[in-house]
Amino acid sequence: MLAKAAQLPKDVAPSRDLWPGIAARLGEAQGAPAKPAFRWPLALAAALAVASVSALLTWSLLQDSQPAQPAVVADVGTTAGEFVPVSYGPNSGLSAEELAVRDDLAAQFRGAFEDLRPETREAVVKNLAVMQAAADEIDAALAKHPASGMLKGMLFGTYKQEMQLYSTVVTARDGLTRRT
User: Which pTM does this prediction carry?
Assistant: First the structure.
């Protein structure tokens, strides 16, 4: 079979000159108006549709047949000694290293928390209560759907928000603390 292929001629000349047709087509393509490469309205509509579907899916996954329990907001008079970080349930999937990093930052936060203005301390406590309620709800949903990547991502997002809150208080003490 290879011997027959080796007998074929190496070069075959076309039966006619093809270049005039190619040149004419290239000239037509260059003269045609260029279409816009990106359409903003279409992209915006697609993004809105994706966000809406995502919100509806999240809402439907988090709905329980049990009535929702209101989040318990800690007492505004909380002191640094009474501060408790957000606890994550057994389904969280957070590593011991991630929790250790959080605990180190929470220890720094405890010192800064005591120096906060009362209204700022109240807002921080309310935010932590909301994060705790979210972590509890997501953990309960993960118990029902342990393979849900979306729920795991939401729980990790709660963890990141908690870390951001601690970091903001620790690094911005001068702007958030009481003036003396």
Answer: 0.50
